[in-house]
Amino acid sequence: VIISPYTKIGIGNLFGPQTVIFSNSQIGNHNSFQGQILIDSDTLIADFCTIQSGVKIGRNVTIEEDVFVGMGAIIFAGVKVGKGAYIAPGSVVLQSVKEKDKMVGNPAKPI
After folding, report:
1. I need a labelling partner for 54 at 20 to 30 A (CA). Which of 11, 31, 93, 108 fits?
2. What is the pTM of this model?
3. CB atoms within 10 A of CB 2
4. CA distance 68 to 11
5. Could you report the per-residue pLDDT of 44-94, keeping only the tens digit for each?
6. CA–CA dist 2, 70 (Å, integer)
7. Quick one: three-class SS letters along the chain?
8. Radius of gyration of the chain (CA)
């Protein structure tokens, strides 16, 4: 695990191997990062999120509370993912996601 010293991290987070978090990011409380995850700078991940293996999260992304991001998903820079959203494995998220939306596909669309 490689975490920038300029990243703020809350309590109770679990980080799997080969997770990289760049500078000025903020990680809330009680999140699960399963491994081989790349989180670019200036990103906010709130509380109680699950980020599965192989996920790539771009710069300046906001992920609100209780979000699930499936294995191998990609979230592009500047995207906001609303509270309780579900990103299916392998999805490519190009636009912001509304609260409790389920996103699937490349490009990801709500179902």
Report:
1. 11
2. 0.96
3. 10
4. 19
5. 999 999 999 999 999 999 999 999 999 999 999 999 999 999 999 999 999
6. 21
7. CEECCCCEECCCCEECCCCEECCCCEECCCCEECCCCEECCCCEECCCCEECCCCEECCCCEECCCCEECCCCEECCCCEECCCCEECCCCEECCCECCCCEEECCCCEEC
8. 12
